[in-house]
Amino acid sequence: MIRLKNDVQIAGIRKSCRLLADMYTSVIPQVAAGISTKDVDDLCAEFITRHGGTPAWYREDFPGAACISINDEVIHGIPSRKRKIHDGDLVSLDVGIDLDGYISDSAVTVMVGNVKPEYRRLVEVTRECLAAGIAACKAGNRISDISKAVFAVADAAGYGVVYEYCGHGVGLDVHEDPSIPNVVSRGPNPRIQPGMVLAIEPMINLGCADVELADDGWTVLSADGKVSAHEEHTVAVFRDHTEILTLRG
């Protein structure tokens, strides 16, 4: 069931999203070669709790405040003291905040140090995919319009578009209806309505689109071992516009 949000609820979600954007502004510059993914997780958790929030992934029993995925790890990488960040890595952070019961969700791929040009281009195109998906997210369109827009940008660049995981409704819970695939599917295709709050999140692979689940039961890997990028914003749909709630200043 799709939960349309009223003005009071959107205001609460917006506040949570602004806190998440501020967290990224603080944390991203500290993601550097030599530190562990648990160090990054600690930075995220400390910022969130210091500002009165709770890491939203705790609701899902995820073992960390942030999903931190490096290179061929597509999503849901578990923070670890042993997992070090190196020069040239792509480090994807996916964080949500529960602030007074209102949930935000956003992801960003950080390019650490001397990143290969082909990796940098992948991140740039993934950001273009997100922008295209958001542009298609307007009242009166359908969810498949978002999917088409994301896929068209990535496919034109020759990249694999992850189809097994997708965006989703968000705001009062971590994962809500509707699902928002990055590839047009035969699943439900509801019309986009005012009051929807959606997490749009392209996951784009340098190689094939296929993924596999690691032995830890959480981390999703590209099937061919090539790098992946992940970008995500939470947006709110209004009658005459769509607002990016997690936009960083």
UniProtKB/TrEMBL annotation:
CDD domains: MetAP1. It catalyses: Release of N-terminal amino acids, preferentially methionine, from peptides and arylamides. GO terms for biological process: proteolysis. Pfam families: Peptidase_M24. Its cofactor is Co(2+); Zn(2+); Mn(2+); Fe(2+). InterPro entries: Creatinase/aminopeptidase-like, Pept_M24, Pept_M24_MAP, Pept_M24A_MAP1. GO terms for cellular component: cytosol. Keywords: Aminopeptidase, Hydrolase, Metal-binding, Protease. PANTHER family: METHIONINE AMINOPEPTIDASE. This is Methionine aminopeptidase. It comes from Treponema brennaborense (strain DSM 12168 / CIP 105900 / DD5/3). The lineage of its organism: Bacteria, Pseudomonadati, Spirochaetota, Spirochaetia, Spirochaetales. The gene is map.
